[in-house]
Predict the structure.
Amino acid sequence: MALLEVNSLNKSFGGLQAVNNASLTVEEGRTHAIIGPNGAGKSTFLNLVIGNLEADSGTVTFLGSSLLGLRPHEVNQKGVVRVFQSPQIYPEMTLLENTTISALAKRDGTFVMNFFQHPRRRKECVATAEQALDSVNLLHLAEEEAINLSYGDKRRLELAICLSQKPKLLLLDEPTAGMSQQETQSTIDLLKKLSKDEDMTQVIIEHDMHVVFSLAEHLTVLHQGTVISDGTPEQVKNDPKVIEAYLGGVEEL
């Protein structure tokens, strides 16, 4: 079943056509990667999907409903959650506070803490937050301030913040950027586990081809804002258009 459908999406900035008639379909429960050389339009494409940018034309449909025209927090409430390139956390708060606020925001549609609500209602969100931390192996650091975490653990905390919103679709923008080789492999293993245990649909934008081919079941390749290839990893890897886009194979696929 198609979870996300994007058809004929276009976005230009002045004379630059950043996204050009781009289409893709993301199947529920699968891991789908969007790849392409630098400047291919990948991040612009993602920002159009989540409402950070307004499309010039085209359609974006999630579970049968249009996402175009919605603000980012409204897209989030629909169940589409994004993990950014750099950690988006509250450094002076504990890990549990970070994830609990996110769970409350998902439930109430706002990041404003309601101190007058019944503690039992807040307790449900705390339980959700603890489960999210446990999913990324950070529950033992729940009372630690986020500022004290290593870079890799900050990335995992941001993932837990997203998981506490119980997303239907998780969008990961370069989830291993800036990580060591060991942290990268740990993240690959974690995302595999989430995909299997949570049956979670993931869309990954990533430069590291080791990460892409370790995780993705389906690939879409963007070049100069246009989709030039779409298929299984093996199909895309051997597509002459893809090899040419990556400078004749200088950037090894």
